[in-house]
Amino acid sequence: MFPEYRDLIAKLRQDDPRFEKIFNQHNELDHKIIRMEKNAATAIHADLDIDQLKKEKLALKDQIYDLLLAAKS
């Protein structure tokens, strides 16, 4: 995610607890979505749940990007 900001992400993860929390939440959702999609039985019954998780993940990604832009300037 955001390879052009790799160094800034590493710095913010170390220095900014809020950024670290949002970053970790995003990664946890990513792993949860992948697990749910791999389990065909779960995916069939949980399409709406997966869609909701993807929306939450996207919102976190937007927050991460906003924090990166703010830290960059």
Report on the architecture of this protein.
By secondary structure, the protein is an all-alpha fold. It has one domain. Helices cover 88% and strands 0% of the residues. The chain has 4 helices and no strands. Helix 1 packs across helix 2 (17-38) and helix 2 (17-38) runs antiparallel to helix 4.
Structural class call reads mainly alpha
Main sheet summary: none
Q: Proportion of β residues?
A: under 5%
Tell me the number of structural domains. 1
Total strand count, please?
A: 0
Q: How is the quaternary structure best described?
A: single chain
How many H/I helical runs? 4
Architecture blueprint of SSEs:
Elements: H1 6-15, H2 17-38, H3 40-45, H4 47-72
What's this model, at a glance?
This protein is mainly alpha-helical and 73 residues long. Helix content is 88%, strand content 0%.
Offer a few descriptive terms.
elongated, 73 residues, mainly alpha, 4 helices
